[in-house]
Write a structure and sequence with these properties.
By secondary structure, the protein is of the alpha/beta class. The chain has helices spanning about 15-25, 85, 90-110, 145-160, 195-200, 220-235, 255-260, 280-290, 295-305, and strands at about 5-10, 30-35, 55-60, 70-75, 115-120, 165-170, 175, 210, 215, 220, 240-245, 250, 265. The chain is built from nine helices and 13 strands.
Length: about 300
């Protein structure tokens, strides 16, 4: 499959903007990006607005009228927070499920099925029984956010029995990297814990560790996520399947805090969050040809410097 023209939804977000950078540097594709700034930030993409290969659409995904011009859609637009999904349930259903279905309906309506690379989440596993966790692990959603991500996966699976959908679900573990924390985002308290801790360190405050900090997290750098999206898009033989995208190693939240600051505080544990995320990335390595290249401790050291 020849790729010339692609769409990134949620392009001004943390992952979307880093994916935009990666694709502009890696490919000669024409890239359209859409964002309504519900959680994204114009500052994340302003350095790319003058690039002739990039077209920015300031709008919501639900207002897209056609996907006919695109060879691939990277669907990242979402409200990506576990705790707020318990409180703002309808809003999260609209952004995370309904808008995704709108894109799929456009494909069906136009009888045009671009490669659909969906940003899913390891949250769908809940607290898994198998560690490290493979893609075959039982689904056990502990939050509305996780359930919405899994619903999109199931709709893709069910609708692909009737329509020639061509999709790949990338189940991100715990992303970190540049632009992961936006102080203007109303949900910033639920951003990547790496971004939160580094931001608090930057403004002279101590990290706030939830619970006793023993919860283990598999942290994956955003540029490794971008590479996984690219590889999922370009391989025509990879379709209608899911991949774990994690580092394949863990660090406790308390250990993370200690890497950043000698002082830290404890706050109550949050319900609905897994005790451990630890990706088995064997499938991504063997089939996708993808390998993580970044180490979180190196990133922390360079960020603090």
């Amino acid at each position: 499959m020849q790729i010339n023209n692609v769409l990134i939804t949620g392009v001004a977000g943390f992952i979307g903007s880093n994916l935009l950078d990666y694709l502009l540097e890696k490919t000669d594709w024409k890239i359209s990006g859409i964002d309504n700034f519900s959680t994204g930030n114009i500052k994340n993409i302003e350095h790319r607005l003058s690039d002739p290969r990039f077209v920015f659409i300031n709008d919501s995904t639900k207002n897209l009228q056609s996907l006919k011009q695109y060879d691939c859609v990277f669907h990242l637009a979402a409200l990506p927070r576990i705790q707020p999904s318990f409180e703002f349930v309808t809003e999260h259903i609209s952004e995370n499920l309904t808008n995704s279905m709108h894109l799929i309906e456009l494909m069906i309506k136009e009888n045009h099925f671009p490669k659909f690379v969906f940003s899913s989440s390891s949250a769908i596993y809940g607290t898994p029984k198998i560690i490290p966790t493979p893609e075959t692990e039982d689904i056990d959603c502990l939050s509305p956010y996780a359930f919405q991500k899994y619903e999109v996966e199931k709709y893709l699976e069910l609708l692909s029995t009737r329509y020639p959908l061509n999709y790949v679900n990338l189940r991100y573990f715990n992303p970190y990297g540049p632009r992961s924390f936006n102080p203007d985002n109303k949900f910033n308290a639920y951003s990547s814990v790496v971004g939160i801790f580094l931001y608090r360190q930057e403004i002279g405050k101590t990290p706030l560790v939830t619970g006793d900090g023993s919860q283990q997290r598999d942290f994956i750098h955003v540029s490794d996520l971008a590479k996984a999206n690219y590889l999922a898009a370009i391989n025509p033989k990879i379709l209608n399947t899911a991949f774990n995208i994690g580092n394949g190693a863990t660090l406790s939240v308390l250990e993370l805090a200690k890497c950043i600051s000698e002082k830290y505080e404890f706050i109550p544990k949050r319900e609905g969050e897994s005790d451990i995320t630890f990706a088995d990335v064997t499938k991504a390595k063997e089939i996708l040809g993808w390998f993580p290249e970044h180490d979180i401790k190196d990133f922390i050291k360079s960020s603090i410097k």
